[in-house]
Amino acid sequence: MNSLLDIHDLTVAYHRKxxxxxxxxxxxxxxxxxxxxxxxxxxSTLIKAVLGLVPLASGRAQIFGxxxxxxxxxxGYVPQRESVDWDxxxxxxxxxxxxxxxxxxxxxxxxxxxREWARECLEKVGLAQYEHQQIGQLSGGQQQxxxxxxxxxxxxxxxxxxxxxxGVDAATERLIFQVxxxxxxxxxxxxxxxxxxRTVPQYxxxxxxxxxxLVAAGPRETTFTPDNLRKTYxxxxxxxxxxxxAIAAGSGAP
Length: 254
What we know:
By secondary structure, the protein is an alpha/beta fold. The protein is 35% helix and 24% strand. A hairpin with a 2-residue loop joins strand 1 (5-14) and strand 2 (17-27).
């Protein structure tokens, strides 16, 4: 059986400086997976490299045993909020409808069925009442929910998310993770860059520890350990103590 995700010898360099080095990673079944590491570790670059958004110096990445270009309709992507032009004159519903374009093709416009589906996706993230709002008028957490709804509208089989919890309040974080848990229960895979070590044991069942090179990857219980965290973060004690407390608490993923 083909892997959901197969990354082999992947290296990315900016101005001849490697930001990812010889990364090998396989994901064989639907998981809620966190990519974790310090600033500058290459976490966002890893997602962009897999999706073909940045050039590779070497190596390859396949999804469902195919090059990404052949299975793009099966892939959902939520970028960082900082990469979006929030002043663009587009409504919340229009943004979510963009998630339906891949299945419509070049010459069809979204119709009634697509609009109903987009509204259903907005309902799932608690924003149905905001469909006519300009996207820039929403709060940061609401904007993040809109882009999650757009990803849901793609009806993808694997989702890549770049810090979907950055800058959101606790209620939005819980809602987003419930949506992600529902996707996993439906047989979807989610790979998310995540920055809060304290909540990794609570929400994720698979962890990728990255610091330019792959440090460790596997089930949370055996991978998200104090020893692996020290190897990843280089002994930043306050940060690691908080993570150790979360590990000791033994919270399970939803």
